[in-house]
Write a structure and sequence with these properties.
7-stranded mixed beta sheet, 15 helices, 11 strands
Length: 438
């Protein structure tokens, strides 16, 4: 028992903790800063290795308490709205601050040249986690931008149909309708079956809309308004058998679910680092399968593109031609990636399911109704409690003000626990719901 306690204490100090130990480093010259940068990156990698070894001795809630301690929020204001915004790992936030200060100290091309390599490092780590090639990954600004790159980049005519889910996020829903109004193609919206009991019903609802006109299937992996999870693998398989392009908005699954994009087989996939990935803000993921790169036109062409229609960028990188970027955030994405690698995608997914099921069971035990299905095959990390019309927002505000739980009023009372949440946090949320709604 003492060995486990000692290991836990050491892990709390080492678990992917602050990559920068002293603010005094920010006063160093450019050469010293570059050296310190290398040291910081090595420290993150080393700490991840030590943590993985120690985690063999620290399990259960003790392990997840160590994870919780890698975030700076106090227990008085607990985030539980991962569908919108997550806190960054402390090490990520500090790396962003460190690298931003580096640029402010010396914004010369000479000093900033290192960021090209740091960007490629982030890209390579993310690509490996998703089992795709680095050439298939563009690091853009967020899911909204990534979704619009796809909807604006595909050539469609008045003879074509685009099938969407009526629970898609507006950037994968309204964006298609706006473009359809300009170019004349048709958007077909599929509703969720009213008596939803199993994933097969969802599959059949979409397949029933496939026709010879269907060119694109644009769906959301997990709904942010109901928490319903689509059977993506089966939908991709059915659509690809008809030659239909498949785009998946994965804003509610990247960083929370173990994903193998190559095995899933979709043509494109989008997400944001500021949600379940708990990475830097204003960094988005755009995956486009290699055989589709030439098919999609970029919506923005900035310096470094080349001349005419020719681009100097290879693969999906051409979609990163967006002008000046936040180099510090793009580089710090690698810190988040290493943290995810040290924890393990399967372990993260299991924890999200555990927390969301614990939350749903607690709400159901109160005799309250859920918008989100109880069955894990039909749901994931987004949990929505049914509320009287118009009361989701006010109840969310009261839950925050009186119980320190930050949710949202989206689709009802929405609570989305991340790996920084503990079972005690979830129990507090349930206690708050009991007080406010029963």
């Amino acid at each position: 028992m003492n060995n486990i306690k000692n290991a836990a204490d050491l892990s709390r100090r080492l678990f992917l903790s602050r990559s920068l130990k002293s603010s005094g480093a920010l006063m160093l010259g450019a050469g010293a800063l570059s050296s310190r940068l290398a040291t910081a990156q090595e420290a993150v990698t080393a700490q991840a290795s030590v943590t993985e070894q120690l985690s063999q001795a620290v399990t259960g809630e003790d392990y997840w308490q160590m994870v919780r301690e890698q975030f700076s929020f106090p227990d008085s204001t607990v985030p539980m709205n991962a569908a919108n915004l997550c806190p960054s790992f402390r090490a990520v936030a500090e790396q962003v601050a460190f690298l931003t200060a580096d640029i402010d100290q010396d914004c010369s091309f000479n000093n900033r040249s290192k960021f090209s390599g740091l960007l490629e490092n982030s890209r390579a780590l993310v690509a490996a986690q998703l089992n795709v090639s680095a050439d298939e990954i563009a690091l853009v600004r967020n899911t909204s931008e990534a979704n619009n790159i796809i909807s604006n980049g595909l050539d469609l005519t008045a003879a074509d149909d685009v099938i969407i889910w009526d629970e898609n996020h507006p950037t994968n829903h309204v964006a298609w309708q706006v473009r359809a109004a300009r170019f004349g193609f048709r958007v077909v919206s599929v509703a969720t079956p009213a008596d939803l009991r199993d994933p097969q019903q969802l599959l059949e609802a979409f397949v029933a809309q496939f026709t010879d006109r269907t060119r694109v299937l644009a769906i959301t992996h997990v709904s942010n308004v109901s928490g319903i999870r689509l059977p993506v693998a089966e939908l991709v398989q059915a659509a690809k058998a008809r030659g239909i392009y498949v785009h998946v908005d994965g804003a509610q699954t990247w960083g929370a679910m173990a994903l193998d994009l190559a095995a899933l087989g979709m043509d494109s996939f989008t997400a944001s680092a500021h949600k379940w990935y708990m990475g830097p803000r204003e960094v988005g993921l755009l995956y486009i399968r290699s055989d589709q790169h030439s098919r999609i036109w970029p919506g923005v062409v900035a310096s470094g593109w080349g001349t005419g229609a020719q681009t100097r960028q290879t693969g999906a990188r051409k979609f990163e031609s967006l002008g000046q970027r936040d180099d510090a955030a793009l580089a710090a994405l690698s810190v988040a990636a290493r943290i995810h690698d040290s924890i393990g995608a399967a372990r993260v997914e299991q924890r999200i399911v555990q927390l969301s099921q614990h939350l749903k069971s607690g709400v159901a035990d109160l005799g309250l109704s859920l918008v989100t299905p109880m069955e894990p095959s039909l749901s994931f990390g987004v949990v929505v409690v049914q509320t009287p019309d118009g009361q989701g927002g006010p109840l969310s505000n009261r839950l925050y003000e009186q119980f320190g739980i930050a949710g949202a009023g989206t689709g009802g009372l929405r609570l989305c626990p991340g790996i920084y949440n503990t079972l005690a946090h979830v129990d507090r949320a349930v206690a708050g719901i009991k007080y406010l709604m029963t």
